[in-house]
């Protein structure tokens, strides 16, 4: 398998800085270059898009923290809302 280090570096940097938007940006760039008939640059951006998708797929499970404890309950309200505030909210 041929590894293009420029594609890998560029895709990694895009994913680090832009996250999910990296795929959309690389796809837009690919469409622009394909429309301009710049096939070599379009091939580069196609590889960047595919590598970005792969990097995000690998990174996604790592972002979610493992469920080690049950979720915390919301703290109880200490004081009920005054009736005058309730009336103001309803009339607005």
Present the secondary structure layout:
Elements: H1 5-18, H2 21-35, H3 39-63, H4 83-91
Helix pairs in contact: 1-3, 2-3
Query: What's the overall average pLDDT, rounded?
Result: 78
Percent range for β-strand residues:
under 5%
- Judging from the principal axes of the Cα atoms, what is the shape? globular
Backbone structural class: mainly alpha
> What is the gyration radius calculated from CA atoms?
24 Å
Q: What's the tally of helices?
A: 4
Question: What share of residues is helical?
Answer: 55-70%
What is the H/E order?
HHHH
Query: Using DSSP, what is the number of strands?
Result: 0
Oligomer: single chain
Give the gist of this structure:
The protein has 92 residues and is mostly helical. The protein is 68% helix and 0% strand. The mean pLDDT is 78.
Walk me through the structure.
By secondary structure, the protein is an all-alpha fold. It has a domain at 5-56. It is built from 4 helices and no strands. It has helices at residues 5-18, 21-35, 39-63, 83-91.
Tag the structure with descriptive keywords:
92 residues, globular, mainly alpha, single chain
């Amino acid at each position: 398998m041929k590894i293009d280090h420029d594609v890998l570096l560029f895709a990694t940097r895009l994913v680090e800085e832009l996250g999910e938007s990296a795929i959309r940006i690389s796809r837009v760039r690919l469409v622009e270059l394909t429309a301009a008939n710049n096939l070599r640059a379009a091939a580069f951006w196609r590889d960047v898009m595919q590598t970005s998708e792969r990097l995000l797929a690998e990174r996604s499970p790592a972002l979610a923290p493992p469920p080690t404890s049950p979720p915390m309950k919301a703290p109880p309200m200490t004081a009920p809302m005054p009736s005058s505030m309730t009336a103001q909210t309803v009339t607005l």
